[in-house]
Amino acid sequence: MLNGKTLDEISARINEAIAASPARDIQKNLRAMLASATSKLDLVTREEFEVQAQVLLRTREKLDALEARVSALEARRSRSATRKQS
Predict the structure, then answer these.
(1) Cβ of 12: how many Cβ atoms within 10 Å?
(2) Alpha-carbon span 54 to 48, nearest angstrom
């Protein structure tokens, strides 16, 4: 997927090509075209990604803790049922 560095590299190469050309409007048009193309992609910023990764990590930790509690409660219930049958 395209990232900021890749877009900067593409832009730099385009700038070099345009520097030798009298058509300065091409640069503006290409930038607008690239911006339009990337805006149509379903992208998130690195910051948004990191925040969501942290939320997911906390959620997994809570799920693990809840699974452990349920297992402990089931084990205790099973032991209790076994004692009542004896």
Answers:
(1) 10
(2) 10
Cβ–Cβ under 8 Å, residues 7 and 34: yes
Does residue 56 sit in the same domain as residue 37?
no
Same domain membership, residue 50 and residue 22:
no
Q: How many CA atoms lie within 13 A of 4 on its CB side?
A: 3
What one-letter code names the amino acid at 6?
T
Q: What is the pLDDT of residues 34-73, one digit of tens each?
A: 888 888 888 888 999 999 999 999 999 999 999 999 999 9
Range of the domain at 55: 45-86
Helix count (H) and strand count (E) of the chain?
3, 0
Total domain count, the chain: 2
**What does the DSSP 8-state code read for residue 73?**
H
DSSP 20: T
- The pTM (predicted TM-score) of the whole model is 0.51
